[in-house]
Amino acid sequence: MSKRTLRGLTILMLLQAVAMTVVWAQEPAAPAPAPAAAPDVAAAPAPAAKKMTLWNLIVVGGWAMWPLGACSLAMVGLAVLNFRQINRKRMLPEAIIAQLRVAAKEQNLETMVNLAASTSTLFTNGLMAGLRKFNTEDPMGCKPNVESAIAEAVGREESQASFWINFLSLVTAMSPMWGLIGTVSGMIGAFQKIGSGGMGKPELLAANIGEALITTAAGLIIAIPSMFFYFLFRNLLNRIIQQAELTYSLLLDDLTGSTFIVEEAPPA
Predict the structure, then answer these.
(1) Closest Cα to residue 129, out of 105, 155, 107, 106?
(2) Which pTM was predicted?
């Protein structure tokens, strides 16, 4: 993982932690001042405002906070895993590609096969599938078959690389749903208390309303960075595949001897 990628991941995790702290760790508003007492009656001291900790708010959020916590851990784990797997240095090894270019210009098929077999990456696996279709007696005639084999192999490699990326999409969809279920659960509890005589007593409804709001906020806080990571890794993978396709084209042109050299016209 490059330092720039690691720095970006760290910043995003810090932003998520700050957002969770701001939403979940709000201190309750100070109670309204009591009416002035008669001069001969000593005023009772106002109760100190209770500071809510993160754990208190998780408890208020109710049972829905447990699946939301699992979604949060899954999002962080998948982001770290994909940062390790979806990167250009891992999928397009520059040292191997440079040696393959030299061997292709020399039209040395055996060296190219050995280089492709020496390491297992998206690029080398796709190239190896194409080299199996190469016919040394008819290089130009077998080129379409080689390109087709490479395209099929790269498609399989892309599906394999996308496996963990797609789980980020799942977390993005599930987190707000769990938050919504927590919201409905809190509102059901609030209406039950209203039906049992809690109308006009907001202190009886505070816990259920808090559950409804906290779970909604938690679901959105998890879903937003998860969606960002999903599209980030999808775009990174697409760019890597585009670069691999360009390199495949150059290698096949050199190997089949179909490279065209365009000479600049002499100045008039």
Answers:
(1) 155
(2) 0.71
